[in-house]
Amino acid sequence: MSYKSVAIDGPAGAGKSTLARKLAEKLGFLYVDTGAIYRTVALAVLRAGIDPADEAGVSALLGGLDLKMAYGGDGVQRMYLAGEDVSTAIREHRVSGFASRVSAIPAVRAFLLDVQRKLAREGNVVMDGRDIGTVVLPQADVKIFLTAAPEARARRRLLELEQRGQSADYETVLRDIKDRDYKDEHRPIAPLKRAADAALLDTTNLNLEQSLEALLSLVKEKFE
Ligand code: DC
Predict the structure, then answer these.
(1) Tens of pLDDT, residues 136-155
(2) Where in the sequence is the domain holding 122, given as residue range(s)?
């Protein structure tokens, strides 16, 4: 039996993970947050005291990496590093920066490529990331490129941080977002870009409900 897959790519803060998770729920598919996998590798690099620019050092760490992904009873994806649940730790600000740098290393991408493809071979998935439609699952049944203006993404991120009781200022958040976009779009291997056959969904002027509705109609169109 062959399984179905929906690939959702786009920059940080476009609402990908929230929308992908909700879409997966509606379709009854497994939601795979690939950014969380990159973040877990980044956390391991950080904890080992390795410079993310040290390709040989990072590559050497991969062989002994005890990384696991599991789904809780609530259906939420959780990440484990050497048996420890690091699902919260990987969301820290400094891990985001490390993840962006570590994910530019070819050995890291090759290592995670197999992990991601295996998940899509074993079930119906909604997978989100940066290169799912272009590299990981070029044969995906549906491909969506989800984006929004950097300013809109910065405002959403700020709100999210405030709701978590963390303080930040708009200019810093915006600069971080643009910086990450630049790194993700300009790395030589598997850069963030829209696949030629991906439908574009720009959520700059849409709220969450409107975005989900637009996403659902794009997916339905493809599956019908
Ligand atoms: O989506 P996120 O912010 O959790 O992703 C963290 C970093 O991982 C991001 O800077 C880019 C990288 N990433 C990637 O290179 N390829 C993916 N498929 C997913 C994430």
Answers:
(1) 999 999 999 999 999 999 99
(2) 5-223
Under-50 pLDDT residues of the chain: none
Give pTM, 2 decimals: 0.91
- Phi, psi at 169, each rounded to 5°: -115, 150
Q: What is the CATH number of the domain that holds 48?
A: 3.40.50.300
Query: Is the shortest distance between the CB of 203 and ligand 1 below 6 Å?
Result: no
Torsion (CA) 50, 179, 85, 120 in degrees, nearest 10: -110
Place of tokens 């939601």: 31
For 4, the 3-state DSSP assignment is coil
Q: How far apart are CA 132 and CA 130, in angstroms?
A: 6
Tell me how many domains the chain contains: 1
3-state helix, strand, coil in the chain (%, to 5): 50, 15, 35
The best mutation among 87, 103, 112, 119 to test binding of ligand 1, ranked by most ligand atoms within 8 Å of the C-beta, falls on: 103
